[in-house]
Amino acid sequence: MIRIGIVGTSSISARFAEAVTEVDGVEISRVASRDAERARAFAAEIGVPGTAEGLSALLAAPDVDAVYLASPNSLHLAQIDEAVGAGIPVLVEKPAVLTARDWDAAASRARERGVVLLEAMRSAYDPGLAAVRELLPRLGTIRRVALRYEKRSARYDHVLAGEQTNIFDPALGGSALRDLGVYPLHVLVRLFGAPNSVHGVRVGIAAGTDGAGSALAAYDGFVADVAWSKITDTALPSEIQGEEASLVIDAIDAPRRLVLTPRGGRPEEVRVEAPRNPMVGEVGFFRDAIAGRDTAADHEATAQTLRLVDALLDVPLS
Ligand SMILES: NC(=O)c1ccc[n+]([C@@H]2O[C@H](COP(=O)([O-])OP(=O)(O)OC[C@H]3O[C@@H](n4cnc5c(N)ncnc54)[C@H](OP(=O)(O)O)[C@@H]3O)[C@@H](O)[C@H]2O)c1
Asked: How many angstroms separate the alpha carbon of residue 169 from the centre of ligand 1?
């Protein structure tokens, strides 16, 4: 049994703990918070036996074999380094770190020490992505890929009220690109590899970061456009267009309804059975990685995604 310690006491940690109950061979043993009382209250709420005050205490606990980091983005790198230094496998929330350079350094330290390091990019381990990949050969030569993740955040109300909030706080690595844009960018590189070039536009908000944006990426023979937003909702799906057919994807982070329309033919619907919790796939993969499953392709996909994020964050806010 792999005993996982959680860092962070927000709703995503609760969802993760619930996913762990769906996967054999793993359990949550402790929850860490900066505040001992908050750790106790959260552990009681999600039914976890142990607590710790801070990451160092968690790593020193005798019943913690691995950690899940769900802290603000800017803290990930130091927390990864501390855990890897202690020889403890790490599953870190997306974006794994702030830059591709930081990722390359963290990943190479983890590899040198033989410690598992994996980004908790749930869409990469979702059955919906596998279903999309399976249908791609039927599309013929790919000419356009349009992926989007646009969902207004309740926390945008804080920004509108003149307050700062972690997810939009540049000091904590917050931005819509880093929060939601990474999903379609990650799917893009998982399906098609790194593009030849990328250009972007970022829509600035009062918090001092992007609230929305678009990227245009060039591949040999096709174009990809990627949209993200945390300040508006979309009614549009994602789509991949080939010369023989188009494929419409309802939600790029967790595809559940795929519609393939052959040229001149009738639409065919493919339903993907949803796991009870969308984080189940990443939990299972993390467990398997600790047991020796190769993570080289995962490291590369994280690196390629972060290289795109680096390039897009260089674009001034409009
Ligand atoms: N996979 C998904 O679907 C998904 C969904 C949401 C978020 N995420 C990712 O999960 C991570 C956490 O996001 P979130 O929105 O949950 O973040 P958050 O609520 O701002 O912070 C998460 C936890 O970190 C601690 N924390 C908060 N502010 C801090 C600060 N200034 N310094 C140190 N610790 C602080 C808090 O725990 P304590 O106060 O108890 O220490 C808090 O519960 C991010 O990387 C995000 O991208 C992933």
From this structure: 12
Q: Examine the domain organization and report whether 271 and 211 are in the same domain.
A: yes
Q: What is the mean pLDDT of residues 37-48?
A: 97
Give the end of a domain, one of 120, 136, 167. 120
pLDDT tens-digit map of 188-234: 999 999 999 999 999 999 999 999 999 999 999 999 999 999 999 99
My answer on whether 135 and 252 are in the same domain is yes
For the chain, the distance separating the N- and C-terminal CA atoms, rounded to the nearest angstrom, is: 50
Residue nearest atom 30 of ligand 1, based on CA coordinates: 72
Read off the pLDDT of residues 132-170 as tens digits, 9 standing for 90 and up.
999 999 999 999 999 999 999 999 999 999 999 999 999
Contact 156, 304 (CB under 8 A): no
Closest residue by Cα to atom 38, ligand 1, is 33
Q: Among 50, 85, 120, where does a domain finish?
A: 120
Sign of the Cα pseudo-torsion (302, 305, 311, 316, in order):
negative
User: CB–CB of 59/90 below 8 Å?
Assistant: no
Is the same domain home to 308 and 163?
yes
Please give the residue range of the domain that contains residue 47. Answer: 2-120
CA of residue 72 to ligand 1 center, whole Å: 4
pTM of the model: 0.98
For ligand 1, the distance from its centroid to the CA atom of residue 85, given in whole angstroms, is 22
